[in-house]
Amino acid sequence: MPEFTKPHKGPVSTLIGTETSYTRTVSEYDIYAFAGISGDNHPNHVDEEYGKRMGFGGRIAQGAMLVGYTAGAVSKYLDTLGRPAVSYGYDRARFIKPVRIGDTLTVHYRIARADDDKKRLWADVTLTNQRGETVCACTHICHFQE
What we know:
Radius of gyration: 17 Å
Largest sheet: 5 strands, antiparallel
Shape: elongated
Strand content: 25-35%
Mean pLDDT: 95
C-alpha cells in the first residue's frame, strides 16, 4: 500500500497497484446458510450423493457465495483507506473449478485501473484454493462518494 494519511483523499488513480487479501475455509454451514438465504439449494450444493454422481466428488459451493466472499477483501481494503465508498458491482465472474467443503480460499484483490473523474476503481479479483488453483475470478468496481 502506498503511504498516505487516513482517510485517503487523493485521486483514486494513486491507488492503482494496491492490494489486499482475505482467507476463509468453506464450511458445510456456509453452504446450507447460503442456500437458505439465496434459495440456491440445487442438489449440486446440498446433496452429497448427487454431487458424486455429477462428477464433482460431492457437494460444491455456490458460485454466488464465492463472489460473496470477495466482500471480505473489499471491506478490508476500504477500511484501510478510510474513505466513503460503495460497491458498484462485479463484472465477468467465472467459476473455474469446483469448491468443496473444507477448501481454504484466499481472495486476492488488486486495483487494476481507475477513473478519477467518476471516482471509480476496478479491481482484479481471484480466489485460489489451498493447492494454489484459481477457482473463481471477477472484476470488482468500487465507487467513492467523496
